Automatic annotation (TrEMBL):
The gene is hutC. PANTHER family: MANNOSYL-D-GLYCERATE TRANSPORT/METABOLISM SYSTEM REPRESSOR MNGR-RELATED (PTHR44846), TRANSCRIPTIONAL REGULATOR PHNF-RELATED (PTHR44846:SF16). Transmembrane segments: none annotated. One of its GO terms (biological process) is negative regulation of DNA-templated transcription. GO terms for molecular function: DNA binding; DNA-binding transcription factor activity. InterPro entries: Bact_HTH_transcr_reg (IPR050679), Chorismate_lyase_/UTRA_dom_sf (IPR028978), His_ut_repres (IPR010248), Tscrpt_reg_HTH_GntR (IPR000524), UTRA (IPR011663), WH-like_DNA-bd_sf (IPR036388), WH_DNA-bd_sf (IPR036390). Keywords: DNA-binding, Transcription, Transcription regulation. Residues 5-73 form the HTH gntR-type domain. It comes from Ectopseudomonas oleovorans (Pseudomonas oleovorans). This is Histidine utilization repressor.
Length: 237
């Protein structure tokens, strides 16, 4: 026998339908819990549970004395740190997964050789992964690694660990360089990210060092409507 649907779930479904359908856009104030309780014939406690669940899932935010508002649920990363994307996604309360597109040794072309400080044609390790949040692609990671510093890179099971975790475990990161720009992507990248090729994307070129050793060069591509970067500068003294 199927268990009856909890009464708070009807309120959750109603609010999610309005959010996903655009009736409740970002920063829109949702009806107060008293009104939701009346409309659905439930107690305020039940309405509060529905709202709190959506707050925990990142759809809503409560502002004391003002009400509850729809949030911007784009995935977010700090710009001045190198974070493990799997930990970021799980830390926001979502399910993380990835798809490994490529993992191989190749000869460095002009761009890769220049970015990694290697001679043209030198062997480098190359991986391409698509990172997903709740089954939706949020990042295409196209990474090149200097084999001298991470010789076991290609033996890693990237369905279980991320490239970031492998690099940090092998060579603790001391310095990082980020170059950010808006780009349009080719048809293959659009297919992997499940987006229209006309959609603007956020590109982050990242190089990482361990002590004075240049370890990795990565191109991180994010759909513009699913991702944002955050930067916080604190004044010293």
């Amino acid at each position: 026998m199927t268990s009856p649907t909890p009464r708070y779930k009807a309120i959750e479904d109603f609010l999610l339908e309005r959010i996903h359908g655009g009736a409740y856009p970002v920063n829109h104030q949702i009806p107060p819990e008293e009104q939701l309780a009346r409309d659905f014939g439930v107690s305020r406690m039940t309405a509060n549970k529905a709202i709190q669940n959506l707050v925990q899932k990142g759809y809503l935010v409560r502002q004391a004395g003002l009400g509850t508002f729809v949030t911007d649920r784009k995935a977010e990363s700090p710009l001045h740190e190198v974070m493990n994307i799997a930990s970021e996604v799980r830390g926001r309360g979502h399910a993380y997964s990835n798809a490994v597109v490529r993992c191989e040794a190749i000869a460095a072309d002009d761009e890769v050789a220049l970015r990694l400080g290697l001679r043209l044609g030198a062997e480098v390790f190359h991986s391409i992964l698509v990172h997903l949040q709740d089954g939706l692609p949020i990042q295409l990671e196209d990474r090149f690694v200097n084999p001298r510093w991470v010789p076991h890179y290609l033996q890693s099971d990237f369905t279980q660990v991320t490239p970031n975790e492998v690099l940090v475990a092998s060579c603790p990161i001391s310095d990082v360089e980020h170059v950010v720009e808006a780009v349009l992507v080719d048809a293959r990248t659009a297919e992997l990210l499940q987006i229209d090729p006309a959609m603007p994307c956020l590109s982050v070129i990242r190089r990482t060092w361990s002590d004075d050793h240049l370890i990795s060069y990565a191109r991180l591509i994010h759909p513009g409507d699913r991702y944002k970067l955050r930067s916080l500068h604190k004044r010293r003294g």
